[in-house]
Amino acid sequence: MGKRDLLRGNEVIAEAAIRAGCQCYFAYPITPQAELLEHMARNMPRLGRTFVQAESEIAAVSMVYGAAAAGVRTMTSSSSPGISLKQEGISYLAGSNLPAVIVNVVRGGPGLGDIAPSQCDYFQATKGGGHGDYHMIVLAPSTVPEAGELTMLAFELADRYRTPVMILTDGLLGQMMEPVELPEPIDPASIPAKPWATTGASGRDPNIILSFDLDPEVLRQMNLDLQAKYRRIEEAELRYEETMTEDADLVIAAHGTMARIAETVVRRAREEGLKVGLFRPITVWPFPYEPLRELSSHVSTVLTVEMSAGQMWEDVRLAVAERAATPFYGEMGGIVPTPRDILSEVRKHAG
Question: Could you tell me if 226 and 251 lie in one domain?
């Protein structure tokens, strides 16, 4: 085993982005993701890469658009209200088929909210968020080491599909410290060529990147091409994890940090003789509807647990339909449910 460092989730995401070949990082400060920006501020210039603390979130995502169009790996990060300000730019990235990585370290809301952890941006992340018929790939890590792994993957998927990819974490995971074996830096030669990029047209026809066309038929075809890409992503990039579901009667559905807490609940429930398992979506878009649908055919209850009013719960109910009961337990405002809280809820439904 290689050297392990004790690092915050925010720091691991930042360092993994550097090791994934991120050349340009643009952001504006906001808690609880400040350590990510600070890590990039210390290290990107030292490596001869671009770091800009922009004058606003809107400026930052616009800079990401420019860097992505020029063909370099680029990233921005923020937290809830800051991500809201970036939505127009994210829609432009999606509409222009540009690869970029966006990190949302979610805090309590709505409005300015607080700086405590929450999962209340699920709808914004998975249902588009900005204007138009578009999606991002959305990855939801549950541990600090996995946050690093999924950051490396995010850059790979962004380039493979020419699409924005979001890493959806929260204030708990961002501030939490865990031992991490950092990934090896990628070989720059492994980054795919980008013949579509706006790198200067000497010796070739100009490349034009935009999401605008006044001809409805042309714009319709652009949209059809996007939808076809999303279907390919849904077929190829589903990621999820099941824990002790083989004989389970009740399954907890949870993502991100709630899933790691739910793992403790599963162990404690098993000690009480309750047949409880865990279904954890890793890609919350595309959501693993079919695997959860199949699992729900063999259990009596799928209990969704979230730090929200029940946003992922909607996707769970779509997947399960009438195959099993679908109760919900959640907290809001930055309150983190404890294993005791969730286990109490499990006991209500396990009978």
Answer: no
Cα separation of 201 and 187, whole Å? 27
- Nearest-angstrom CA–CA distance, 170 and 256: 8
What are the DSSP E strand ranges found in the chain? 5-8, 24-27, 50-53, 74-78, 100-106, 137-139, 164-170, 177-180, 240-243, 250-253, 276-281, 283-285, 301-306, 328-330
Pair 216, 244 in one domain: no
| Residue 20 and residue 141 in one domain | yes
- The angle at the Cα of 295, spanning 339 to 301, to the nearest 5 degrees, equals 50
- Same domain for 229 and 263, yes or no, is no
Domain identity same for 290 and 142:
no
> Which CB contacts under 8 angstroms, 24+ apart, belong to 331-334?
331/307, 332/108, 332/118, 332/120, 332/307, 332/308, 333/108, 333/113, 333/114, 333/116, 333/118, 334/107, 334/108, 334/113, 334/114, 334/115, 334/116, 334/117, 334/118, 334/171, 334/307
Spatial CB neighbours of 338, under 8 Å, sequence gap ≥ 6: 261
Q: Which position has the token pair 């995971």? A: 173
How many Cα atoms within 13 Å fall on the side-chain side of residue 153?
Answer: 18
Lookup: tokens for 231: 């279907």
The secondary structure of residue 304, as a DSSP letter, is E
Domain that holds residue 222: 5-201+209-236
Number of domains within the chain: 2
Residues 253 and 310 in one domain: yes
Residue-wise pLDDT for 266-285, tens only, equals 999 999 999 999 999 999 99
Are 39 and 168 in a shared domain?
yes
Does pTM top 0.70 for this prediction? yes
Q: What's the CATH code of the domain at 286?
A: 3.40.50.920
pLDDT per residue over 155-200, tens digit each?
A: 999 999 999 999 999 999 999 999 999 999 999 999 999 999 999 8
